[in-house]
Amino acid sequence: MINDKLFLSTKIHCMTKKLVAEFIGTFWLVLGGCGSAVLAATFPDVGIGFVGVAIAFGLTVLTIAYSLGHISGAHLNPAVSIGLWAGGRFGAGELVPYIISQVLGAISAAGVLYIIASGHDGFSTAGGFAANGYGDTPGSPGHYSVAAAFTCEVVMTCLFLIIILGATDERAPKGFAGIAIGLGLTLIHLISIPVTNTSVNPARSTSQAIFAGSWAIGQLWLFWVAPIIGALIAGFLYRAVFENGKESDFPRK
Description:
By secondary structure, this protein is mainly alpha-helical. The protein has a single domain, classed as Glycerol uptake facilitator protein (Up-down Bundle). The chain has helices at 2-40, 49-67, 69-72, 78-86, 95-117, 146-167, 177-196, 202-212, 214-219, 222-241. The protein is globular.
């Protein structure tokens, strides 16, 4: 009985550490990525632009991967957790707690960002507050259609998960996963910011939509559905094609 209680206590303690790490990591992703979009991207004459925002998002993942990845895996994204589950890398029992922590971390970061941004005269969320969207809204800088946005989010999330699953494969070079994943997210943003402001992350989309207003809330469904579909495709595909056997399992000619 004592051993059972000790085991349960240890398990709860371990899970708590993981959830706190996911909260902090997702907080940093939203504050760093969306913060650079809201505060620095449009600064007169010296703004960092799309390229700077893309690099900022990549840097948030890179830094958290090496600082907290050994604790929780540094998912920072409900779609990533779901994709890792589909790929056989993550337990179903941890999915809901991880997603809740990620969403709460993202919303908290958006709240901090709002407090900072609103300290400037003339601030307004009418510019979009880095929310994701499609059509004639601030969430799609290029005013792309819903079909284009949906396709973009599915494909980008799918490829992001392929990068994650491949870089963290036991056969991959050790110690470089964070670099590949961070650079992968940077490239994804370079491609898709004009289309949807780049989501590939339902938690990040939710946090900004809450502050951006009704148009963003109304379009939020796409930024849950499309990334999850993309993540599931990647997870099942990687598991079926790349993890069914090792090179040594096949005969050499």
